[in-house]
């Protein structure tokens, strides 16, 4: 049985294909169009999934869509009437997209895919919950979904057990932690649905001096509930996200490109603190009403890795699972598994242990490309490639690492990564400014061997797994000076644990680096430049390599240098 899940039309459009309950392929549309957070119908991602399975759309048993467009439209229409006449032109401008696409999803699927079979629509937060629970290692778990807004729901607590997901409690629009965070993201001069992680990184540089002002915006209950005081917000009308009363509390907004002042850092710190309080309150209540020590998290706010890491200390949960595409992209996976497990009532037979579900390129394809570009490259055996790469990184070189299939979700996890030496204290600024061309306050993640994670980080248990880079933990004091370029200003690091059974080549690279340096950790950042999606093809990787002072590029078994044609084998 083949089941195709689709998410589209808001941000992070994606497709995911299951065969008998196992993921065959999954990818975001942005990887193909090169439009970051592409919201268009995922034609390219669907074509990739079908091609990977070697099937046509006629062989699909189901196509699932990750939300209910009519219910979402009802919310938008009701909001407009309540706010009228404010926001009229925004509503008027949005109508063509609704009439031509968003309310015609069923007919668009039939037309674009030539599909005549069953099409299933489930609500947005059920898709989020399904994407987290049905691929988790847990037989039973509390499920927490937190984002901007789906149809009406912005936050939910659900219970997953066996094949079933049971909704328990929810918070509805306009009260939203995701929209609260996005409001400040824009207020601080960044972009909503794109730069929230920048605010999270900036928060560590400030002090939470605006807590009392923040508490005027949001009332947090002990039962996991919260209410926003809407006089401070204007996102319902669509003019802008905050009101004059908001500016009276926090002053003038920062424009993009303006200097970041202490006030901005303190606002970010205060926002993060309040988010963590609300997030923790929801999680504690989820434990109280489910009595499960396992927690699954999905939704855009579920990528707040700082808040995720704190849950181990501030709640009774012992195990927490966040799948790599926790945003709307993951809804494609969620609806596919809802169909497999809930509608078809198949027993759960899959646990997600890696994220390599996107396009892959053979050495033959890579060689053909490099020859066509007259690049300077050499071919190496697997062992020699690892020796060379580890030696170069240990010698202070910055390496583009392009291997295997593209990762699912926004994190590069060792397949499309830029790698560097974490022991070099200058490396953070070098990679931020010279390679990634981004803000200097942005931290880097650390990829660490699974067996050594407890030696470097304060993890909740010795064998803690974090393969999808969704948790931030304190770095052990005695190790801070050893890996300074991945230690954030507050002494933390977002970590990725790497085991051999999940990512053999990347594991062996870090193992080889440890052999040379004694350090089982690499600085890992996504292979892309500012404003770009993560690279997908050899051409995209090569072009980014040429645009930057990156030292070497490892494309499959090839090591590429800058300069003229010079082809060798070793």
Structure description:
This protein is of the alpha/beta class. It has 3 domains: 2-66 and 68-121 and 332-343, Nucleotidyltransferase, domain 5 (2-Layer Sandwich); 172-322, ATPase, nucleotide binding domain (Nucleotidyltransferase, domain 5, 2-Layer Sandwich), CATH 3.30.420.40; 363-569, Carbamoyltransferase, C-terminal domain (DHBP synthase, Alpha-Beta Complex). Helix content is 38%, strand content 20%. It has 20 helices and 22 strands. The strands form 4 sheets. A 10-stranded mixed β-sheet has the order 17-18-16-19-15-14-20-21-13-22, sandwiched between helices. It has a 5-stranded mixed β-sheet with strand order 3-2-1-4-5, with helices on both faces. Strand 2 and strand 3 form a beta hairpin. Helix 3 (69-83) runs antiparallel to helix 4 (88-102), helix 6 packs across helix 13 (329-343) and helix 15 packs across helix 19. It is globular, with a radius of gyration of 23 Å. The two termini are 45 Å apart. The model has no long low-confidence stretch (mean pLDDT 96).
